[in-house]
Design goal:
Blueprint lengths: L5 E7 L4 E7 L4 E7 L3 H9 L5 E6 L6 H8 L3 E5 L15 H13 L11 H33 L11 H8 L6 H32 L5 H7 L7 H11 L10 H4 L4 E3 L8 E4 L5 H11 L10 H7 L4 H23 L4 H20 L15
Parallel strand pairs: 1-4, 4-5
Antiparallel strand pairs: 1-2, 2-3, 6-7
Helix pairs in contact: 1-2, 4-6, 4-8, 7-8, 8-10, 10-13, 12-13
Length: about 375
């Protein structure tokens, strides 16, 4: 049993916070609406009979409240909303009931808590996600431009978005003023978003050379299909690789099959797609690179330059195994998309294997992840 006397559940919103406190010694449950400012919430919690434990659901308000409570000496658990179970017969949902439910679950130790990132980790994650947003914006801007041209019967039949293609786009002219204006705006949007993505790429490349990212990012880049952007994205999304093992990292990223089994009946379905979608997409994209035969690559050798021999040997073993695994899946007539997800799940284990290495381990032998 934990030593806390008061258990607090908070239902946190941008403009309101409802708190429910369960006092074990007084056998009381009190509910109060608190101002949404962090200082006000911390002051209300500190005024309760201590020791106090607090919980609230992770959401768009971030982790500032959890850090403030930890700085004040209060144990705070941030809960994963997707892991909270709700009874099928519970048809009434209010802020007060949600706060009380969180407090009761915290009291019996049945809350699936998430890891609270540091401010530096959250800043790096914001930068990587801004780049991910720019990638999506660029894709949509390009689609809008190409479909505008398609409606005018103009089609580019060679490799798209190369220097030659962009020069061809600049030479396009239209007689109708409406079409000309729409085309100019669509083309300007492509160039603007492309420049924004390039600026974010440069910032991420610079951040990848600083500690603590430099070590794991440099080791991950030895793997086939894992560039600097992919390695940084994985590192900032996973944050603490030590939380996992080679067999559990795939489950965290939603790359394991869903299952509906009961008794002697076992049914497996598609992957769960739980966890971090950005990291999962990066791994699946990298997995496609292992479909081609494994040959020496100047680019991969340049990325591995300066890494210890043990890191390069392990990465090369992973590259060989992943390509062989893909070949075996093709021999079993698996669809390429299914094979890519299976390779991505195993690639996650190899990424973990390299990320958790430290200077003391580089000279030791480590078995490859299962």
């Amino acid at each position: 049993m934990l030593a806390e006397r008061t258990w607090v559940g908070l239902d946190v919103h941008a403009r309101s916070v409802v708190g429910c406190a369960i006092d074990d010694e007084a056998c009381e449950i009190r509910t109060q609406r608190v101002a949404p400012q962090t200082d006000a919430v911390v002051a209300w919690v500190l005024a309760l009979p201590g020791p106090v434990a607090v919980t609230y659901e992770a959401g768009p308000t971030g982790f500032g409240l959890a850090r403030a409570l930890a700085a004040a000496g209060v144990r705070c658990e941030v809960v994963a909303p997707s892991k909270l179970e709700r009874p099928a017969g519970d048809k009434v949902k209010t802020d007060r009931r949600d706060a009380e439910r969180l407090a009761r679950l915290l009291r019996i130790g049945e809350l699936p808590a998430v890891r609270v990132p540091s401010e530096a980790e959250e800043a790096a994650r914001d930068l990587v996600r801004a780049r991910e947003d720019a990638r999506g914006d660029l894709m949509r801007a390009r689609h809008r431009l190409s479909k505008l041209l398609l409606r005018q019967g103009i089609v580019w039949d060679r490799s798209a978005w190369t220097g030659e293609h962009l020069d061809w786009l600049r030479r396009q002219q239209f007689d109708r003023r409406g079409v000309a204006l729409a085309f100019d705006e669509a083309l300007d949007a492509v160039f603007t978003v492309h420049a924004r993505r390039d600026r974010l790429d440069a910032a991420i490349e610079e951040m990848a050379e600083t500690m603590p990212l430099a070590g794991p990012v440099g080791r991950l880049r030895c793997l086939r299909g894992v560039s600097t952007l992919t390695a940084v994205g994985l590192c900032v999304e996973v944050a603490d690789w030590q939380r996992f093992t080679g067999s559990t990292i795939g489950s965290y990223l939603g790359l394991v099959p869903s299952e509906f089994s009961s008794g002697a009946r076992r049914v497996q379905g598609s992957i769960t797609k739980t966890g971090n979608g950005h990291a999962r997409r990066l791994l699946v994209e990298a997995a496609w690179q292992h479909r081609r035969p494994l040959r020496p690559s100047r680019q991969r050798a340049r990325r591995a330059d300066g890494q210890p021999a043990a890191v390069r040997a392990r990465a090369e073993a992973g590259n060989r195994r992943l390509h062989q695994r893909w070949c075996r899946l093709e021999q079993r007539s698996k669809r390429p998309t299914v094979s890519a997800v299976a390779i991505a799940r195993e690639l996650a284990g190899w990424c973990w294997s390299l990320a958790v290495l430290d200077d003391r381990q580089l000279d030791e032998h480590h078995p490859a992840p299962a």
